[in-house]
Amino acid sequence: MRSPNEDFPPAGGGAGAPPTGNGPDARHRPMRERRSPRRRALFVAGGTALVLGAAGLLLPAPYVVESPGPTFNTIGETASNPLISIEGRETYPTTGELDLTTVYVSGGPNGMVSMAEVLAAWLSPEDAVLPVDFVYPPGTTSGEVKEENAAAMASSQESAVAAALSQLEIPFTEELAVAGTVEGAPADGLLEPGDVLLRVDGKPIEGMDSLRQALNDSEGNPAEITVRRNGGELTLAVTPELSDSGAYQMGAYLSIDFTFPFEVSIALENVGGASAGTMFALGIIDKLTPGELTNGRHFAGTGTIDASGNVGAIGGVAQKMVGAKDSGAEFFLAPEANCGEVAGNIPEGLVVVSVATLEEALTAVETLASGGSAETLGSCTDGA
Question: Hey, which end of the chain has fewer CB within 10 Å, N or C?
Fold first, then answer.
């Protein structure tokens, strides 16, 4: 049987020397003296790792977190004022709700999120985590984000009014002005910023659709473009080129200036972007037409819109559906272009209908409000 001294050398230094100290615990003292520094090192290393790990969770992370945001009833009130006000035209009472939906965006130019927040979002079934460069171009500042969001919101409101009036066949005017040209494109060196497009081959330009049609009708032959420049009119020959999309284009960036026969004001603060366009348009239609569009039911939705009534894709649709459900919505209108993100993410009990145009959105609300079946409408789960 081995003695303790064979594993732990005697403290006295001589071979076979007895352990120092008195009593039965003396032989174990060398064991404690050797293990103590090792244990301290482990404790220090473990504590350091915990501190570093905790500090790492507090460090900024290159991600953006999207979470469900609040909803706003476009036919209701905000801060005791109507969200949509119309002056100069008869309006009608409304009931129910036509909610626009929003998304909270944390991280990026408005302030980085911590790794702890990112991990919490990854674990949450309601949040989405995206690389910051996927959402914002490198170098984007918070000021630029606010400016772009405000501009997009203003543009979406004008487009919503135009789409609603077009749906109701209420006339208005639309002017197209040149904001710039693409270098090397047919319009480069001919059209100038500020030029207002008046006619193509003598035919009045009444909007973007009529311009597109006129350029396509040219089939690549020179088109006479009449513009208003510096108070006078000027006619230029521009030869459209066939684009990758199969349409003939001049290569000009255009801005749209609408003139409506009455005033529509939208009071919504601290919300930016263009995704509320479809719900704005529905709210305007409801106020301008007799009867109650929703029949007292609770609708929510999202989607950009252009003056022609085309509904476009948006971001954060999964979070917007959660926000709609949390606010008590029964029905949700989703852009058809977002169906890939809608399928598999629909909250339980929420009826989701896909729409590609304002007319489809209007039909969906009328059908569901009157007790009709959603099966007769667009769906993101049937291959739509």
Answer: N
